[in-house]
Design a protein that fits this description.
The complex is a heterodimer of chains A (about 260) and B (about 250). By secondary structure, chain A is an alpha/beta fold. Chain A is built from eight helices and nine strands. Chain B has ten helices and no strands. The chains are: A alpha/beta (about 260), B mainly alpha (about 250).
Chain lengths: ~260, ~250
C-alpha cells in the first residue's frame, strides 16, 4: 500500500516568552532586560505513516499536540525539524494536461471549528472566499452552492453575516464546504464536536462516501468512540510524544490504559 | 501556471470581500470614498489658493492629482499593514500563499484610486487641459506606484504582525511624509539645498512626474523614468523577499 502522508521525526517547539513583547516600544525599552521564556515542546520526534485510502485517527488529551500536528500537515506551521512528505497523485487521476508533471495529493483541511470565516461577510461571500482558498474556481463554487447550502441547512441565512451564526451553524457551513471539495486527503479537527444528530448523520454519510471513493482522512479527536467507529489506524499523542501506533482499537486500548493508570 | 492563475482568483475574491466590508455594499459607501480625498482637496485649496493667494496656474488640477496619489499611498499602506491581522481567521486555518492577502488589500485601494481618477478627469477637462501622447506614461506610472506601494506594505505588514504599535508610528510618519512630499506645493518652491533630499522620497517622483505629463505634456528624462522603474521594482522585490522569509512566523505569532 502506498503512503499518502509520511511523517519523519517531526519536532515543533514553541517559544513562549513570559512577557510577550508585541510593541516596538517594549522591545526598545526592555532591550537590556533579558527576556525570559519557556520552551514548550508541542511535538517531539513524532513519526508515522498514513496509507492511501485510510482513515487515520489522532487521539490524545487536550494540549497533547494534535492540533499542532494537523496544522503542520496542512502547511500552516513549519516544523523545527523532521520531514512531512505528501504522496504523489497517480498519473491520469489529475485533471491537468496530459503531460503534466506528477502533483502531490491535494489536501483539504478543516481545522478548529470552522475553516476560517470573515465574520462581517455573509455566508455566501464566505463560501466563495473559502472555496477559492481551497482551490475551487468561481464557476465550480456556483455549481456546488445549492448543495453546500442544503448540506449546512442554512437556506434562509445565506445572506446573513457569519458573525450572527450560531457556532453550530458555522461549523456545519465549514464542514459543508469541505465536504464539497474534491481533495485526496481531508484533515479534520474535532469536526463532530458541534452539531445536532441530523448533522452528525450527514457527516457520517460524507465519511462513508469518502471511504467509498478511496479518500484519505486524518481525523483528530479526543473522543475515543469516534476514532473507534471511523478509523482504521490511529496514533496516541501525549505531551507531544508518540505513545502508541497501530490499529485504532489497539491505540484506544493503550489510551484508556494510560488514562486509567 | 494554473496555480499562479488561481492565486489571482483568490485575490479577486478577497478584493470583492474587502469592497463589501469597506463600503458595506451601499452607494453611500462608494460615494464616501470619492468624497474623502475631495474633502482634503477642498480644505487645502481654500487655505492655499484663497487665503494664501497662491498664484499658480491650474492649481486645482495640480493639487487634486497629488492628493489622489497620496490618498492611495496612505490608505493602501495603512489598511494593508493591518490586513494580516484582520484576516487571521483565514491565515490560521488554511494554507495559501500569504502574499495574496497583502496584494488583495493594496489592489482594493488601487481600485479606489482608479475611481478617484474619474473625478480627476472631470476636473482636468473642465480646466481646459488636453492630454497628449506623453500623458499615456501615466499608465506605467500607476503600475509602478502599485508595485512600490505593495513592496512597502509587505515590509510594514510583516513588522506589524510582531510590533502592534507600528500602526501609530506609521500614522505619524504618514503625516510628516504628507508635508515632505510635493502635494500642496511644487518642487520649484523648495530651496535648492532641500530639493535633492525630497527626491529621496519616491512619492516625490511619482507625484511630480505625473503632474509634468498631465499639466505640461512633458516626459521626465529617460534616466528619471528608469530610476523610478528600478526603485519600484526593487522595493517590490525586496518587500516580497522580506515577507516570504517571515511567512511561517506570521501564521504562528499572529
Amino acid at each position: 500500500m502506498t503512503s499518502a502522508i509520511s511523517v519523519k521525526s517531526l519536532t515543533k517547539t514553541f517559544i513562549l516568552p513570559h512577557q510577550k513583547r508585541t510593541t516596538l516600544k517594549e522591545s526598545f525599552v526592555d532591550f537590556w532586560q533579558r527576556q525570559t521564556y519557556e520552551k514548550f515542546a508541542a511535538l517531539s520526534d513524532v513519526s508515522f505513516e498514513v496509507n492511501r485510502g485510510e482513515f487515520f485517527g489522532i487521539i490524545g488529551p487536550n494540549g497533547c499536540g494534535k492540533s499542532t500536528l494537523l496544522k503542520i500537515l496542512a502547511g500552516i506551521y513549519r516544523p523545527d525539524s523532521g520531514i512531512v512528505t505528501i504522496g504523489m497523485a497517480d498519473k491520469g487521476t489529475h485533471h491537468a494536461g496530459t503531460h503534466s508533471t506528477p502533483q502531490p495529493l491535494s489536501i483539504a483541511s478543516l481545522l478548529e471549528l470552522g475553516i476560517g470565516f470573515q465574520q462581517d461577510l455573509s455566508a455566501r461571500e464566505n463560501i466563495f472566499i473559502n472555496g477559492t482558498l481551497l482551490g475551487l474556481t468561481a464557476r465550480q463554487i456556483r455549481r456546488l452552492l445549492p448543495g453546500i447550502v442544503e448540506f449546512a441547512g442554512i437556506e434562509n441565512f445565506l445572506d446573513l453575516k457569519v458573525k450572527n451564526f450560531s457556532s453550530g451553524m458555522r461549523q456545519r457551513l465549514a464542514f459543508a464546504i469541505a465536504a464539497h471539495i474534491d481533495a485526496d486527503i481531508y484533515l479534520c479537527d474535532e469536526v463532530l464536536a458541534v452539531g445536532d444528530e441530523s448533522f452528525q448523520k450527514k457527516c457520517f454519510e460524507t465519511f462513508a462516501s469518502w471511504r467509498e471513493q478511496g479518500k484519505t482522512v486524518v481525523l483528530v479527536s479526543h473522543d475515543a468512540n469516534q476514532i473507534a467507529t471511523l478509523c482504521d489506524r490511529a496514533i496516541y499523542l501525549d505531551h507531544g510524544q508518540l505513545k502508541s501506533t497501530g490499529s485504532a482499537h489497539q491505540v484506544i486500548a493503550d489510551y484508556h490504559a494510560a488514562l486509567a493508570g | 501556471m494554473t496555480n499562479h492563475l488561481h492565486n489571482w482568483a483568490i485575490i479577486w475574491q478577497l478584493v470583492k470581500g474587502d469592497f463589501k466590508l469597506r463600503y458595506k455594499g451601499s452607494m453611500l459607501g462608494y460615494f464616501w470614498t470619492l468624497f474623502k480625498p475631495l474633502m482634503l482637496f477642498g480644505v487645502i485649496y481654500l487655505v492655499f489658493s484663497v487665503f494664501l493667494r497662491n498664484p499658480m496656474q491650474n492649481y486645482a488640477v495640480f493639487l487634486l492629482l497629488g492628493i489622489i496619489i497620496w490618498t492611495f499611498f496612505s490608505e493602501a499602506t495603512m489598511t494593508g499593514m493591518n490586513s494580516l491581522l484582520s484576516k487571521r481567521d483565514l491565515i490560521t486555518k488554511i494554507y495559501f500563499p500569504r502574499e495574496v492577502i497583502i496584494l488583495a488589500s493594496v489592489l482594493s485601494s488601487f481600485i479606489t484610486l482608479l475611481l478617484n481618477l474619474i473625478i480627476f478627469a472631470i476636473f482636468y477637462v473642465s480646466a481646459g487641459l488636453m492630454p497628449g501622447v506623453t500623458t499615456l506614461l501615466f499608465i506605467p506610472y500607476l503600475f509602478l506606484l502599485f508595485l512600490f506601494t505593495s513592496g512597502l506594505t509587505f515590509i510594514l505588514a510583516s513588522l506589524y504582525a510582531r510590533f502592534h504599535d507600528l500602526g501609530h508610528i506609521w500614522e505619524v510618519l504618514l503625516q510628516i511624509l504628507f508635508w515632505l512630499s510635493p502635494i500642496v506645493y511644487d518642487l520649484s518652491f523648495v530651496p535648492e539645498a532641500y530639493r535633492q533630499w525630497l527626491y529621496l522620497n519616491p512619492l516625490t517622483q511619482f507625484i511630480s512626474y505625473s503632474r509634468r505629463i498631465f499639466l505640461i505634456n512633458q516626459s521626465p528624462s529617460l534616466k528619471q523614468n528608469l530610476l523610478l522603474l528600478i526603485i519600484s521594482v526593487g522595493t517590490f522585490a525586496l518587500g516580497y523577499y522580506f515577507f516570504k522569509r517571515q511567512e511561517y512566523i506570521i501564521a504562528e505569532t499572529i
